[in-house]
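User: what does the whole thing look like in 3D?
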Amino acid sequence: MSQTALLSPRGSGWITVRDPRLRIVAALLFALVAVSLRHPPALLAAVLFAAALAASAGMRAPDLLRQLLALEGFMLILLITLPFTVPGSPLIAVGPLAASQEGLALAVKILLRANAVVLVLLALVGSLEPVVFGHALARLGVPEKLVHLLLMTIRQIHLLHQEFIRLRQAMRARAFVPHSDRHTWNSYGWLMGMLLVRSLARAQRLLAAMRCRGFQGRLYLLDSTHWRPADTALALGFALFLGGLTTLDRLT
Amino acid sequence: MAHIPDGVLSAPVLIVGGLVSVGLLTVALRRLDYDRLPQTAVLSAAFFVSSLINVPVGPSSVHLLLNGLMGLLLGWTALPALFVALVLQAAFFGYGGILVLGVNTMNMALPALLCALLLAPWMRRVATPRLFWIGAAAGGLGVLMTGVLVALSLGLSGKAFLPAAGVLVVTYLPLALVEAVITGTVVAFLARVAPELLRSPEVSHA
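Assistant: Here's the predicted 3D structure for the full assembly of 458 residues, as structure tokens:
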């Protein structure tokens, strides 16, 4: 919540010059393959690849760790409960319950899969300029109306986040410190309500501005992405890698 | 915690979630014309920013889901707005995953739709002092139903996930309470400051 540049791309390096469509499709295919892996060697390879990709895309390790942490709350619940619910050879016993090796193995596999997918997603798609991401989605066949909503929302998130910081600062100036009590929840309710009121006024201005520019019930997407030979090469390399992962998984 | 990560759910659950979400989104997009796009985008951005606020609850803190409130204010339009928020959260914050996007959208959107269809018409009839309770109902219902849907997605993916699903539902209870209070406050606030946001059929076009 500290980031002032919300949704700003954090990537740099070779990955940023590749075609956005390639990056989205590659992330999707990687997720499909990673989720279908069954054995630890291939899963480990996938996670290592994902981490290397994230590092080479110029993502900073503290940022990545903070983002992965959001995932681990969910994972923690699975890690704690799964060993006790999957039948198999007992590892340790807590009272009448016995933790099984198979359950722990399943939990670790899920942990590896989820982290690999998120790392690749952040490295390939999270490093895109949000607007470019929207355009690429449209080129990949996502309905245009949805893409326009996405693009407008991205712009407004930036503006409203600044509005939010302003309102929050005003609260801080009045010595507001959040606690776990009714006063805090009410104050946050009013803050969100005020944000909605301001956004309604903003929407009316936005529509008026669109009408001024001759808006006739249709918007157009203007972008210029060019598929280069290097993109084809990278796509082939990536496909080979995914094929290799699947083969490794079959063999073990 | 409404974002299920990739690699947990079974293929049938993922496919059903994807199909339901695509179906709902298709209907919702058909009801949304370009004239109302700016308003939807701005409100959806406001919800996105609000959901980033750390709300303290007991010793820890939570982020609000706000799907109940979105259902109340946006009606069917809440679905594409929620979907856009989930896509952005997955791609830029790493919440959730790619293949589970359909299931995650369904888990957030169905409660929003329920609030839009059941509570929103009622909200337009009821006297202003009572609006807090409608808001609170929407907030609590949105969170609880999402919790149940998340637990169902887990439970239907394998028997071994049942205890985890139970634990998850319990973690949703304090969130439901806080979200009910805050959503109620927001609705009561809007009733006094900007009643057109609650009443105009253009906004909540359920």
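In plain terms: The mean pLDDT of chain A is 86. The radius of gyration of chain A is 23 Å.
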